[in-house]
Design brief:
Number of strands: 14
CATH architecture of the largest domain: 3-Layer(aba) Sandwich
CATH class of the largest domain: Alpha Beta
Helix content: 25-40%
Strand content: 15-25%
Shape: globular
Number of domains: 2
Radius of gyration: 24 Å
Structural class: alpha/beta
Number of helices: 15
Distance between the termini: 63 Å
CATH superfamily of the largest domain: SGNH hydrolase
CATH topology of the largest domain: Rossmann fold
């Protein structure tokens, strides 16, 4: 009976699993790697890391700027260091990269807040692995409690409907006939070689303050297993003769001001790189970032959009060229966060909280800016969904406002700036119903 059940499951997996497996970026990526291997090609440069890598590094631009043939973006959502290590070994067997750039960020070595999120992120990397890589991933990363998620018949069981299967078969047939064609109409779409292009954009001054009370780096909180995984990557690259570089991809200024211990994280990675004979660059500290990386270049508070990725990759291509040639790049970067802050003459981000009372609501605003300035606040109100606004409080140092609403829906716009003539105020919009 156990043998019969196993055979029945495997047959179901072979037929139904294939029917349910979606045509997605993992399929495109795996096929690209397979074709490279079949043609005897190797990857000149391989990037590994989180979604901040796959939305920041534009392979085609690097190939053009550096005169190389294949740049592979191996970033996946919330990719952990141990996943990067497994992915590196698997891709080395497939396409033998000569240069690896590993993305690290302040949170890379911190404890996980969500175990379920770790499983989901590992599956995204797992889908891009070869058969041997999947076996290693299964043995090293997954416990028996999630083994069923490795089988498409189980993972996509909610799509087990005739309409869904028919739609999926049509997509597979179209893919077999026409190959991969980027869908530029989507908000985010797979562009090729692992890169994801985003059409989203924050408006100037509209990057929100997020993760309050949670964004903190401390050397004392480093998870030893995560650091050991990076050690494994360093050792593997040295053993295989791979040039390894560490970078922190760009994110909004909000994070640099808001993350507690951010400079401590940068200092840690700089010391780690020096200890292991590596080069580390914090790409957030590239000079003149206020000019080349405005809020409009962000898809959200931690990811670049497509235009931002284009701009960033062009700049990083010049940095990487110098690194590969052994040239000094120190003049391209601010020394530390304090030196960067000296160049920032605006309010970086703002947030407001609404506290209802018996017959009124208290609006309290706070913002991120340099310590040597006093921000000014402006409160505006709209009753027509944002078409027009009336002034509740003009520019003032007062960060609180008491408002007595009638019953209905309201939209508030809260602004903060260094002075009333500031061309780049920070602002947020909030919809409230009373």
């Amino acid at each position: 009976m156990p043998l019969f059940i196993l055979v029945f499951f495997l047959l179901g997996e072979y037929f139904l699993g294939r029917l349910l497996t979606p045509v997605n970026s993992a399929v495109y990526f795996r096929d690209e790697i397979r074709k490279m291997k079949e043609n005897g090609e190797h990857a000149d440069i391989l990037f590994l890391g989180t979604s901040r890598i796959y939305q920041s590094v534009y392979p085609e631009i690097l190939e053009e700027k550096l005169g190389v043939k294949y740049v592979i973006n191996g970033g996946t959502a919330t990719q952990r260091p141990d996943s990067s290590y497994i992915f590196l070994k698997d891709l080395y067997r497939e396409v033998k990269p000569g240069v690896v750039v590993l993305g690290v960020q302040w949170s890379s070595l911190m404890p996980e807040a969500n175990e379920a999120g770790e499983i989901e992120s590992t599956l995204m990397m797992y889908d891009r692995l070869s058969a041997s890589g999947r076996m290693e991933c299964l043995l090293r990363k997954f416990g028996s409690s999630v083994w069923f998620d490795l089988f498409p018949m189980y993972r996509y069981r909610k799509e087990f409907r005739f309409a869904s299967i028919r739609d999926n078969l049509e997509k597979w047939e179209n893919y077999r006939k026409n190959g991969f064609i980027p869908n530029a109409e989507l908000e985010q779409y797979y562009h090729g070689k692992g890169f994801v292009y985003s059409n989203s954009s924050k408006a100037s001054g509209n990057v929100p303050i997020q993760d309050e009370g949670e964004a903190r780096f401390s050397v004392d909180d480093i998870v030893p297993e995560k650091l050991a995984a990076i050690d494994n990557i360093v050792d593997f690259c040295k053993k295989k003769g791979i040039k390894l570089y560490l970078i922190s991809p760009p994110m909004s200024l909000m994070n640099l001001y808001h993350v507690e211990g951010y400079q401590e994280a940068v200092d840690f990675y700089e010391a780690y790189a020096e200890k292991n004979g590596l080069v580390y660059h914090n790409m957030n500290y590239l000079k003149d970032r206020e000019d080349w990386l405005p809020d409009e270049m962000m898809a959200d508070y931690v990811h670049l959009n497509g235009k931002g990725a284009t701009c960033f990759t062009e700049r990083y291509a010049e940095i990487l060229r110098k690194d590969l040639n052994g040239e000094d790049t120190g003049e391209c970067f601010y020394r530390d966060l304090e030196e960067l802050k000296e160049t920032v003459r605006r309010v970086v981000a703002i947030k407001a909280e609404f506290t209802p009372g018996d017959r009124s609501v208290r609006i309290e605003a706070n913002c991120l800016c340099n310590d040597d300035v006093t921000p000014l606040y402006r409160f505006e109100l709209s009753t027509d969904g944002g078409k027009t606004y009336e002034l509740l409080q003009d520019w003032s140092e007062e960060a609180e406002l008491i408002f007595e609403p009638a019953e209905g829906k309201y939209r508030f716009r809260i602004l903060a700036a260094l002075d009333p003539e500031d061309p780049k105020p920070a602002w947020q919009v909030y919809d409230q119903e009373f």
